[in-house]
Amino acid sequence: MKLWQPDQPLDNGRFIVQKFIARGGYGATYSAIELRTNKLVVIKTLNLELQSKPDFPQQQVKFVNEGLRLAQCSHPNVVKVHELIQEDGLWGMVMEYIDGEDLGNYVSEHGKLPEDEALQYITQVGQALEYVHSKGFLHRDVKPNNIILRQETKEAVLIDFGLTREYSIGQLGSMTNAKTDGYAPIEQYERKGEFAPYTDVYALAATLYSLLTQEIPFPANFRKTGIPLPPPKQFNDKISDRVNDAILAGMALEPSGRPQTVREWLELLLAIIDKPTPDLVEEESSQENLEPTIFVSPSGGIGIGESKNSIVSKNLFVFESVNLTITAKGKSSIKRYK
């Protein structure tokens, strides 16, 4: 089991660990300095608990797969994944460092948010989720503490994709034990469940509930026993009827009772006319006929570019679920990380 220490060099000295930031149900997070650019980055690994489990190698395969896919994502409200590195057998996901404050702390300091301000943040996170869903992912841990407000712009950015998984409509999947009570829908309490964008709809609606009331909603498993969810307006009479009703619709206990997509829920919440999401339209047009291209740094770090032909090298590793090839360490590649 490995826990990185302050001042520890990583990836042949390219990065220097600054400090341990946090431990979650899935990952451990560190801040580090990239020496070449002197930029602060965040590096996430699997946590000590997962490292001690017999299926740790398989968990690392999933971690790498998900990191490679997330590195292809580019959206202003989604934390950027730069590359993957390996240090003494432990993979790390190198991400942008966001200077700001998470919404959980922000609400603790400022109290219940005005409706207009809360809707601004929720709309931005909703657009981020639409984008992530269009890539075939679910976040599965949306909550105030996983949303950071950029210091300068107050723009909301969705972080901590540790529980992210691919999904297919109508497919049964195993749910992890890691979840956040109050924000996790009932299907995340079931060992096998059918999950889709409506899983994140519940958490996004629960997040808005919390921002407007400074209360954590009753956990879904409690509600399953017959305990009703108090309407958010009960804790804040300044909440409009439209927003109150949209939150309750998004937090319907059973998936079939919720809006099935984030777009549907945002339309209900904001009373807007159905139209394509500009971010998604631009992404689709700009990425036509491109395939993900994996490249490596001289020290073996993994990054992603895009080209019309994916790399095929003499020695390659194939990670399950993702049709990508990775140039073996020390071999030449189409694009070299700089």
SSE layout and pairing:
Layout: E1 9-10, E2 15-23, E3 27-34, E4 39-46, H1 48-51, H2 56-70, E5 81-87, E6 90-96, E7 100-102, H3 103-110, H4 115-134, E8 137-138, E9 147-150, E10 156-158, E11 165-166, E12 172-174, E13 192-194, H5 197-213, H6 220-223, H7 241-250, H8 262-270, H9 278-286, E14 291-296, E15 302-307, E16 316-317, E17 326-327
Antiparallel strand pairs: 1-2, 2-3, 3-4, 4-6, 5-6, 7-9, 8-11, 9-10, 12-13, 14-15, 16-17
Helix pairs in contact: 4-5, 4-8, 5-7, 7-8
Describe this structure in words.
The longest helix has 20 residues, at 115-134. The two termini are 31 Å apart. The chain has helices at 48-51, 56-70, 103-110, 115-134, 197-213, 220-223, 241-250, 262-270, 278-286, and strands spanning 9-10, 15-23, 27-34, 39-46, 81-87, 90-96, 100-102, 137-138, 147-150, 156-158, 165-166, 172-174, 192-194, 291-296, 302-307, 316-317, 326-327. The protein is α+β, with helices and mostly antiparallel strands and 338 residues long. It folds into two domains: 9-97 and 290-327, Phosphorylase Kinase, domain 1, CATH 3.30.200; 100-280, Transferase(Phosphotransferase), domain 1. A hairpin with a 5-residue loop joins strand 14 and strand 15. Residues 167-175, 277-300 and 302-338 have low confidence and may be disordered. The chain is built from nine helices and 17 strands. This is Protein kinase domain-containing protein. Residues 15-270 form the Protein kinase domain.
